């Protein structure tokens, strides 16, 4: 979180590119990880002096052509290239809007709550669960309103089954958060979340420093061993909420006629008659499509 957003981003990405991946032979000991500044400049077709000014923050408004050339030199994908352009030309309108606390439009909340047989929740730009229906909360405590998905994955003790799974899921979520935040360093909620996680999680500090960027996946598969209805395999889809700046509606459904459909219907019946009595832990596992968190039941705790 610095004023030199472009330079911080370029340095982080440059350090992650291996010279051999871009056709540069390594013949001696290198004092820096990844590429040197002069190597990026050569690959981008600009002078080393100009690229140095860009990385040091002395040129805050490079042309789109230069940014595209640097992005190609660093092997950035579409989301990462778009992020670089956003850092060079931040939108004040977006930053002002994000100073307000996130709220879900009442009609959207009403729609979500009306789906008694379909788990659904609304996720905010900082990975907060802003609204959810009863079936979503019964499906997973992660989906309860007020939960921050990234904070829970990083800080909840025993939430995951192995450090590798923690890192894989957290890496996806941090990249999505970076993408949503863009150049908006003045966002109070972002500063609060990043500050807390930076103090409390070594893993978060390392992942945040990488500056990875990833868009929300459109959908994926969610697996869970539920303590009340057994194994569930559900498809989820994500829909942008119109006129709500980075809010996403996440909806789950089972394959019609499948065992998961029967189990979900049973959970819906249980949820409709009484709140779930069991409290249980989740073990999120890496989902290859980005931020989808597939889960298994670690263990059901005793009734309180």
- Assign a percent range to the helix content: 40-55%
Rg, nearest Å: 22 Å
Mean pLDDT across the residues is: 82
User: Which strand order spans the largest sheet, edge to edge or round the barrel?
Assistant: 2-1-5-4-3
* Structural class label: alpha+beta
Give a short account of the largest sheet: 5 strands, antiparallel
Number of strands: 7
The total count of helices amounts to 13
Q: What form results from the Cα inertia axes?
A: elongated
Order of helices and strands: HHHHHHHEEHHHHHEEEHEE
- Quaternary form: single chain
The CA-CA distance between the termini, in Å, is 42 Å
Strand content: 15-25%
Which spans have pLDDT < 50 for at least 5 consecutive residues? 274-304
Structure commentary:
The structure is a single chain. The chain is α+β, with helices and mostly antiparallel strands and 304 residues long. 43% of the residues lie in helices and 15% in strands. It has 13 helices and seven strands. The chain has a five-stranded antiparallel sheet with strand order 2-1-5-4-3. Strands 6-7 form a two-stranded antiparallel sheet. A hairpin with a 7-residue loop joins strand 4 and strand 5. Helix 2 packs across helix 4, helix 4 crosses helix 5 and helix 10 packs across helix 12.
């Amino acid at each position: 979180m610095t004023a030199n957003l472009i330079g911080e981003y370029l340095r982080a990405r440059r350090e992650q590119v291996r010279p051999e991946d871009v056709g540069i032979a390594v013949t001696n000991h290198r004092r820096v990880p990844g590429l040197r500044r002069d190597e990026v400049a050569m690959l981008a077709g600009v002078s080393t002096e100009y690229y140095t000014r860009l990385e040091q923050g002395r040129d805050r408004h490079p042309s789109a052509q230069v940014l595209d050339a640097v992005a190609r030199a660093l092997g950035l994908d579409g989301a990462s290239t778009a992020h670089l352009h956003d850092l060079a030309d931040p939108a004040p309108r977006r930053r002002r809007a994000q100073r307000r606390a996130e709220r879900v439009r009442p009609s959207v909340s009403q729609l979500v709550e009306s789906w008694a047989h379909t788990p659904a929740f609304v996720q905010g730009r900082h990975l907060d669960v802003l609204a959810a229906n009863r079936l979503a909360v019964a499906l997973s405590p992660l989906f309860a309103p007020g939960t921050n998905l990234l904070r829970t994955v990083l800080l909840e003790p025993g939430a995951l089954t192995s450090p590798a799974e923690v890192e894989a899921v957290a890496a996806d979520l941090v990249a999505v958060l970076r993408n949503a935040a863009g150049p908006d360093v003045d966002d109070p909620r972002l500063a609060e979340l990043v500050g807390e996680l930076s103090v409390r999680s070594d893993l978060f500090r390392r992942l945040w420093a990488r500056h990875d960027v990833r868009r929300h996946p459109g959908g994926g598969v969610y697996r869970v061993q539920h303590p009340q209805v057994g194994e569930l395999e559900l498809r989820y889809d994500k829909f942008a909420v119109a006129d709500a700046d980075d809010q996403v509606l996440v909806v789950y459904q089972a394959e019609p006629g499948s065992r998961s459909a029967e189990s979900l219907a049973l959970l819906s019946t249980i949820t409709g008659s009484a709140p779930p009595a069991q409290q249980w832990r989740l073990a999120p596992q890496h989902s290859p499509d980005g931020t989808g968190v597939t889960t298994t039941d670690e263990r059901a705790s005793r009734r309180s």
